[in-house]
Write a structure and sequence with these properties.
Helix content: 10-25%
Strand content: 25-35%
Protein name: C2 domain-containing protein
Pfam families: C2, Copine
Distance between the termini: 25 Å
Family: Belongs to the copine family.
GO molecular function, one term: metal ion binding
Subcellular location: Cell membrane
Number of strands: 25
Structural class: alpha+beta
Length: 578
């Protein structure tokens, strides 16, 4: 399922057990509830960090230093918490530590790490490591970085200069403290995924005036006997002989190929009370045998006979048209293969934002330095994505304003240039935004189509050159769009490109149409020509929900991004180079 959860009412779309097909649909309510109840939010991977150092300072008189690494997490509020200690390596200025630190990597969170290296005095060598008082040990230096900086390196190794705290301000010779290398490995015991196509024949009708609308739910059985849903197919309307789209089940996720699975066929009802048509109990190994033998398995239906339930064998059958095992690459595999996420931003300059010179304007620049909603969105999203972009040059546009002595533009370069749209770094976006506020006249209406098409051109040009890039466009707006169908047309075209679109709605407008663009309800966007979006590429968050504390903006905006990225790569069979 890609470990990306989103709330879905209705549940007509597919939800697969492997990360590959999370974006073929959205989360089933039962799956969503189970995952959230177990604390699973957003994309996560277990990362194992290992440590080595070179050219450490020799702080001992008659021998070399006895170094140990201590790892700390730096929280957003500035708090620093110790989380791990390595073993002590005796008499070494070039140690390689054996103990590894395992940390959960969250794509949508900036995870700040602090590493301190200590020389453990000889008198403490027999003291249990966790009992050592660090204030009694000599500091060999410290270094900090984010977890993103490590995992985005091609070899997932980052070498940091160690500096002494008292030297960090006054001394320019911090290299004398040595270097610390941190290496990351993804903890993933199995990337093997079963690719399965299932179909049924002769299903019984559960609807009075039409055929059934069948879908399958696949659940795994745990030792307690509880069934946990791991996959749901799409709903096929009015079909007694349905063939569903492929489902992907991670073998590790279901336990093993011999672990029991329950496959239930339901008739979809919009009220959520789905009718059970029949079910079978099979392992992945059993399904593989059905495929090889080209045989079907009769469904059965638990039926009350007297005071007991008996399994009534039905004429309906389940068949396996395809069963194959493939290796599913992870988001981190692509990062290690050199792929980048390139950040772009488009800002709403329509008049409904209010006069930027007045404090009640959504564009008001507070002299105290307090960020407005536009600045907060740029900073918080950019802070995460900047680590995945090598040159940190970001296309930045405005829309809905009248540049000096010109007509209203629905896509103009934020930096004021007529030749290029890029700015350097997040600070460059902030400066261009502030400058533009005093160099354009706010106008309208609110149109998205132009900026989405402009971003699509950038993505298409990159695709034509074979660049390993995936683009992320952040649109920040305060109003209701007036080109809904044109925006849908642009999004349908963009769904075939390496592009995702994040939308933040600021102010108190009615953002119902934004929720239409964000296809989290299972409804794929359709263009005026009848083309259907190949995947969901939009994520919308109203800023008022962030202000109320209901959600985290970066969490809500970015949690689905790795799955959208993987869906694009896998549908085009793009593999990470190693």
């Amino acid at each position: 399922m890609g470990n990306c959860c989103s709330d879905v009412g209705g549940g007509m779309a597919a939800v697969s057990g492997a990360a590959s097909s999370a974006a073929t649909g959205n989360q089933n309510d039962a799956v969503d509830m189970y995952l959230r109840s177990h604390g699973i939010h957003g994309l996560f991977s277990q990362i194992e960090l290992s440590f080595s150092a070179t050219s450490l300072r020799d702080r001992d008189v008659f021998s070399k230093s006895d170094p140990m690494v201590v790892v700390y997490i730096k929280e957003r509020d500035g708090a620093i918490n110790e989380v791990f200690r390595t073993e002590v390596v005796l008499n070494s200025l070039t140690p390689t530590w054996i103990a590894k630190y395992t940390i959960t990597y969250h794509f949508e969170v900036v995870q700040n790490l602090l590493f301190k290296v200590f020389d453990v005095d000889t008198q403490y060598h027999n003291v249990e490591m966790k009992m050592l008082k660090l204030e009694e040990q000599q500091s060999l230096g410290e270094a900090c970085c984010t977890l993103s900086e490590i995992v985005t390196k091609p070899n997932r190794s980052l070498t940091l200069d160690l500096i002494r705290r008292e030297e960090s301000v006054s001394s320019t010779h911090s290299q004398h403290c040595g270097k610390l290398t941190v290496h990351a490995e993804e903890c993933f015991s199995s990337k093997s995924t079963a690719d399965i196509i299932l179909r049924c024949i002769d299903l019984e009708s559960k609807d009075l005036f039409s055929k059934s609308d069948p879908f399958l739910v696949i659940s795994k059985l745990v030792e307690s006997g509880i069934s946990i849903p791991v996959c749901k197919t799409e709903v096929l309307k009015n079909d007694h002989n349905p063939t569903w789209k492929p489902v992907f089940l991670n073998i590790q996720q279901v336990g093993s190929k011999d672990s029991p699975l329950v496959i239930e066929c339901f008739n979809f009802n919009s009220n959520g009370k789905h009718d059970l048509i029949g079910k079978v109990r099979k392992s992945l190994a059993d399904l593989e045998k059905l495929h090889l033998g080209r045989e079907g398995e009769n469904l059965y239906l638990p039926t009350l006979v007297g005071h007991n339930y008996e399994n009534k064998i039905l004429n309906s059958k389940l068949l396996v048209d395809k069963f194959s095992e493939t290796a599913q690459h992870t988001f981190l595999d692509y990062l290690a293969g050199g792929f980048e996420l390139n950040f772009m931003v488009a800002i709403d300059f329509t008049a409904s934002n209010g006069n930027p010179r007045l404090p009640d304007s959504l564009h008001y620049i507070d002299p105290s330095g307090r960020l407005n909603a536009y600045q907060k969105a740029i900073y918080e999203v950019g802070e995460v994505l900047q680590f995945y972009d090598a040159d940190r040059r970001y296309p930045a546009w405005g829309f809905g304003a009248r540049p000096i002595d010109g007509p209203v533009s629905h896509c103009f370069n934020l930096n004021g240039s007529s030749n290029y749209c890029e700015v350097q770094g997040i600070q460059g976006i902030m400066m261009a935004y502030t400058s533009a506020l005093f160099n354009v006249s706010l106008a309208g209406p609110t149109l998205f189509g132009h900026v989405i098409n402009r971003a699509s051109v950038v993505a298409c040009d990159s695709l034509s050159t074979g660049a390993k890039k995936y683009f992320v466009l952040l649109i920040i707006t305060d109003g209701v769009i007036t080109d809904l169908q044109e925006t849908k047309d642009a999004l349908v075209k963009a769904s075939d490109l390496p592009l995702s679109i994040l939308i933040v709605g600021v102010g108190g407008a009615d953002f119902k149409e934004m929720e239409i663009l964000d296809a989290d309800k299972g409804e794929r966007l359709e263009s005026t020509t009848g083309c259907i979006a190949s995947r969901d590429i939009v994520q919308f968050v109203p800023f008022r929900d962030v202000q109320s504390g209901e959600i985290s903006m970066v969490g809500a905006l970015l949690a689905e991004l790795p799955t959208q990225f993987l869906t694009y790569m896998r549908r085009r069979d793009i593999k990470p180079s190693t």
